[in-house]
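[job 4471] stage=fold_predict status=RUNNING
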Amino acid sequence: MGNDAAYWESRDEILKAEYRAKGGEPCRVCEQPIPAKAHWKQRDRHVCSPRCNMTLNRRLNRRIERGEIERPPVFTPDPQPPREPRVFRTLPPGAPFPYEIHGYCPKPGDLVERHGSVTIIQRAIDLPQHVIPWQILPGETGHWDLNRVAVSIHVETGSAFYYATDNSWTPNSLILGSFLGLRQLETFDSFKVGGETWQWYSEIIRDVDAEGNEYTWTAYVCRMKSIPRLWTPAYVARSRRLRRESSSAGSYAARMRKLGLEREIERLDPQEIYERDGWVCQICQSPVDRSRVWPHMWSPTLDHKIPLTAGGEHTKENVQLSHWMCNLHKGDRFLIE
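[job 4471] inference complete, writing structure tokens
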């Protein structure tokens, strides 16, 4: 899966005008004056409202589809380099995450074990032709390439799930269906074998690689009970960090608009600043209690070394940890050594 941040940053660069509107400039969509207090991203794009911003985005999508503009780059590492087959197991109770995963999906030769239920991944072309359902065979439906069709085979029931893939064996949106022998089943409906009820489902797990790029593990497995979509601890931590960055940037952007200021706003995580400063208030030099949250007077806050009203910017170099009480007491003054 693509890195959402990189993709949207690329779109931002395409949509930006030559300069940030200050107010009164004509909207690129409806030609109405752009409000001076419009969101900074709308002023960057020279649009007057969220509605015009959406129209501008739709126009960009159509230009991309027509080939007039190159599609913004998407993070596409190859998580499926050649490797030996492996088993993806259920991890012991108490593990940070319950299941083993690696890359986008299992490859032919891999086994996926989930709570004792085992699914084997194979290439459809490696199966004897007489066990392949006629719906899958080339010539019957006319367009399936068995070289790019994978099949998950459930050991306990003998049922199979066929799906199309790309060149790295990553499943695409094309599902060929589930089968019990040569009988086609309703794709994700339950079925009975040996007096037990089973079900094929898509195991979807969101994760983050070592560089912080997100991706999605997808595997078609069969069990008596499906597993909901899951996020790994790394993905959860990244999501929380991005929310903190967005909240911080949005809060200070609103404050600057209220003051009528034009300042650089760097996306930063307050928690990283607190860790950098060792959880010590940089104004009074006493420890800051991590457990206290705003609006507690001694909760952690970001203080601007050079106040915004004095030309300071919202950047990592210009912010520091302080108690909220100390921040209020300092106000818009400089610290004097």
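[job 4471] summary: The first helix runs from residue 4 to 15.
[job 4471] exit 0
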